[in-house]
Amino acid sequence: MSGTTEVAARRTGEAGHCGAEIRSDLHVRVEPRDRGGIEIELESRVKPYYGESIQRQTEDVLEALGVRHARVQVHDEGALPFVIAARIEAAVRQAGLGQGTRVLPDQVALRPVSARDRLRRSRLYVPGSEPKYFINAALHGADAIILDLEDSVHPSEKDAARLLVRNALRAVDFLDCERMVRINQPPLGLEDLNEMVPELPDLILLPKVETPEQIVEADVRIATIKENYGIDRTVWLMPILESALGIENAFSIARASANIVALTIGLEDYTADLGVVKTSTGAETLYARQRVVNAARAAGVQAIDSVFGDVGDMEGLRAWGQNSRAMGFEGMGCVHPLQIRVIHEAFAPTAAELEKARKIVAAYDEAQTKGLGVVSLGSKMIDPPVVHRALKLMARAQEMGLLESKDKK
Amino acid sequence: MPTLTKTEMLQNAAGRMVPNRVNGRSQTPYLGVGKYRPSGRKAAPPISIIADYPANGDKRVADLETALRKCGLRDGMVLSSHHHLRDGDRVALMALEAASRIGVKDLMWFPSASFPSQQGAIELMEAGVIDHIEGSMNGPLGDYCTQGKMRGMGVLRSHGGRWQAIQDGEVHIDIAVIAAPTADPFGNCDGSHGKSACGSLGFALADSIYADHVIVVTDNLVPFPCIPWQIQGNNVDCVVEVDAIGDPTKIVSGTTQITRSPDRLRIAEFVAFFLRDAGIMRNGFSFQAGAGGIALAFVSYLKRMMRESGIRAHFVRGGSTKYLVELLEEGLTDCILDGQTFDLDGVRSIANNPRHVATSPFTSYNYHGKGNFASMVDAVVLGATEVDVDFNANVVTHSDGRLLHGIGGWQNCLAAGCTILAVPSFRDRIPVIVDEVTTLCGPGELIDVIATERGIAINPRRQDLIDAVRNSKLPIRPLREIKDEVERICGGKPARPTHTDRPVAVVKWVDGTVLDTIWQIDDLADRMT
Q: Which of B429, B486, B490 to mutate to test the interface with A (most CBs of A within 10 A)?
């Protein structure tokens, strides 16, 4: 095992970040060598408390990855254990070692698989290469957390972010949030699926989808991985349409897989594709957004709006959200936790809507009790679709926690 | 004849080992809240006669060196200063450097707080001009002390405790040097006007009353009388005019900023909701919050709720900032009782609004008196570096035992009707909720609520508060449960950093007894990366 060619093939692997401005991350440098065992140099701002723990964890991860001889520099800025493991694994893999081995943190208790039509008012984007945002992401009450591997991750960080997000899916308790991952476009996206699917995300967002074939490709890959790992938990899909072609194919995309639960739109890329300026009122994307709503409804899935990028403009966000809801969207993306509450308010039924629905449901209940075929409110006859809408609105309001106990059944 | 007594370590009522002697004075170990009853009379400066002072009231002298000589500066004296100019102060170092030029040694510097910009004091300690500091130390001065390089021991006191120590004669100030944003030749001083305006001058009040000699240093000399005056010229020996007493950009901030951190905003909002749900926020209530990011955000959430529900406070206690000033100007509070003024809006308000009143540690915090304002406040929101499962809290050291902050008014504020510590449950990977605090600064029996981003814990001693929020939607959880969750996140309990068995500083309780000890750390450099 001492051929010079092999030594030359080895390279130094690095992953992560350190520095005075960095928090909750670490930088790892792995320099493989022929002999001399493992030599670890550790610097950490939490050394007095967790120095030994980090040292031990580093040794354990290296051993699990089959690294026997290497000089390893760890510069830690208070990273949590699942981050440390991911960064070491990324550095080792970059050094050309440890292929085919996954060093996984303990799995926190998983909630049951999410319902096909659950509330998806808000989904909070968390950059997949910024571990400091992971741990408290779920505290802010979003319906979903999206761990993003795509646009918020620099191309040079894709491999490392993938391991970080994989470990987060296992180690971070996202409470009642739906656990979503936005993967990259193929072929990178297929590699993303290899690492994500075994850790049971609730939903995968597929970016820049333009044809139904792209959905099928991802769906098949997911099915294969699930089979390989013996997983029978559902992984839902949400395609993101971000181009003129994608919008034109909206309906066939929405019907391309039974696992699709929602269709959404990415307005930054879409307006770039059209060559128009994205405005805060969205007149230039009206057609595309209505097309998404219609295609989604036709396919029986939820229509979800894009994000509102100006974190400082809460009133603009509120207006956008209210307009979205009026168009038929059931939710939108968030780029900052402060947006969540405003979005939830914007997507909530108004008091007047609730009151009307309450009356209709009461009239419906009364008709049911009396065995009447026709529901009437005062002198007006209520059509079945109106009753259906009122029942749905009340059910949603209950999920949103907007109903008094007297309304609950 | 004083006999040489060896310092012994005794266990106090909180179970902490504390020295029986500090800087040559014997000490009373902490006996418990309200247990220590001193006797005797207050200290007083010697009698002066007006024959020794100019009849025309003009006490100006050429410079600080002349003033210090005139006040009889000699080896081993106690020289005091105040910290209303915060990190912008130039006067304290100016005075200590003048003392160095005079050639005296072994001074005790007794600031109401020290700041990183005053690290020049380290050179003066190395040169033997200063023997030790009794007052808050952080940054480079904190490290110098924690590494055991200071010859004497550090003594950390609350603002109220500093007044108590001066008043009780525990610390005798030989010469007080008072930086004054405005003063007249007689020595009357005001903090609210002038290019170096800092608002209240309350921290200098005890020094002016009890010191043997008082020197006023100003960069805005006005003709007698300086109106209004917070420090009385009748206590002043000399007045020195200088170009600048400080750096105005560091004295007050232009605007104080609310935190943008969603986790911290969440904590702030929890605290505001807690006051509402517990029924503390009601007409005529009072509260105190500092100028930290969480506290400012808390005030802004509370203000919105007060406005929406038409509730008006009777008084609020500062540290005043723009946010408290807005409450006053919107009629949401009857007055501000201000201990220190943090931003330009605060300075403008205290200078112009008769309902924005300067207070002192005597009115607000002094424990050896006939009452103080702190216990009249309905709720106070404070920070902490660590909290333990018995609700004890640390505010002066990092979890590794390194001095990080002064006590400020923190200990004194624990007397409020409801004391709330608003803290993240962990910082970086370091849990804030621990089994036992590194340094005990506040006994758990006085700490009622711990608000973290993961939930709110109420001290089991406060059944009334537990009952009051029974129907609240807030995440009220046992403190141990939050602690266990955080330890799971952080990957187990943190190791306890080691220290030597040499005490380098003590933490006093508000009554002057010794609450805890800060120990020398050998490998400090290794720990700071």
A: B429
Put simply, the answer to whether A139 touches B399 (Cβ < 8 Å) is no
Q: Does domain B262-498 have CATH number 3.40.1080.10?
A: yes
Write out chain A residues lying below 8 Å of B266, CB-based: 139-140
The per-residue pLDDT for range B18-60, each reduced to its tens digit, is 999 999 999 999 999 999 999 999 999 999 999 999 999 999 9
Which residues in chain B have Cβ-Cβ distances shorter than 8 Å to A81? 491
Architecture of domain B57-251 in this structure: 3-Layer(aba) Sandwich (3.40)
What is the DSSP-derived secondary structure letter of residue B501? S
B300 touches chain A (CB under 8 A): no
Q: Does B497 touch chain A (CB under 8 A)?
A: yes
Whether A293 and A325 share a structural domain: yes
DSSP B308-361: HHT--EEEEE-SB-HHHHHHHHTTSEEEEEES-B-BHHHHHHHHH-TTEEE--H
Any idea which residue has 């309304």 for tokens?
A407
Does A45 contact chain B (CB < 8 Å)? yes
CA–CA distance, B153 with B133 (Å, rounded to integer): 8
Which one, of A299, A301, A306, A314, lies nearest residue A269 by Cα? A306
DSSP B357-374: EE--HHHHT-SSSS--GG
A95 membership: H or E segment, kind and range: none
Residues in chain A with CB shorter than 8 Å from the CB of B261 are: none
Domain ranges, ordered by start, for chain B: 57-251, 262-498
- Alpha-carbon distance of A42 to B396, in angstroms, equals 28
CATH number assigned to the domain comprising residue A267: 3.20.20.60
**How far is A89 from chain B, CA to nearest CA, in Å?**
18
Residues of chain B with Cβ-Cβ distance to A136 below 8 Å are: 262-263, 453
Q: What is the pLDDT along chain A (409 residues), one digit of tens a residue?
A: 444 444 445 799 999 999 999 999 999 999 999 999 999 999 999 999 999 999 999 999 999 999 999 999 999 999 999 999 999 999 999 999 998 889 999 999 999 999 999 999 999 999 999 999 999 999 999 999 999 999 999 999 999 999 999 999 999 999 999 999 999 999 999 999 999 999 999 999 999 999 999 999 999 999 999 999 999 999 999 999 999 999 999 999 999 999 999 999 999 999 999 999 999 888 999 999 999 999 999 999 999 999 999 999 999 999 999 999 999 999 999 999 999 999 999 999 999 999 999 999 999 888 888 888 788 888 888 888 889 999 999 999 999 988 875 554 4
Angle between helices A338-346 and A314-327 (to 10 degrees): 40
Domain end: A294, A313, A346, which one? A346
Residues A253 and A342 in one domain: yes
Whether the ipTM is more than 0.95: the answer is no
Give the mutation candidate from A77, A84, A136 for the B interface (greatest B CB count, under 10 A): A136
Residue A292 belongs to domain spanning: 122-346
Contact B494 A49 (CB under 8 A): yes
Do residues B66 and B60 touch, judged by C-beta distance below 8 A? no
Q: Could A52 and B492 be called an inter-chain contact, meaning their C-beta atoms sit closer than 8 Å?
A: no
Encoding tokens for residue A291?
Answer: 């097309």
B247 close to A (CB below 8 A): no
Contact A320, A343 (CB under 8 A): no
Using a 10 angstrom Cβ sphere, with 0-12 exposed, 13-18 middle and 19 or more buried, the burial of residue B370 is exposed
The verdict on A201 and A320 lying in the same domain is: yes
Question: Both A60 and A157 in a single domain?
Answer: no
On whether both A153 and A239 belong to a single domain, the answer is: yes
Residue B495 and residue A52: Cβ atoms within 8 Å? yes
Interchain CB distance below 8 Å, A47 and B494: no
How far apart are alpha carbons B529 and B527 in whole angstroms? Answer: 6
Task: Give the predicted TM-score (pTM) of the model.
Answer: 0.93
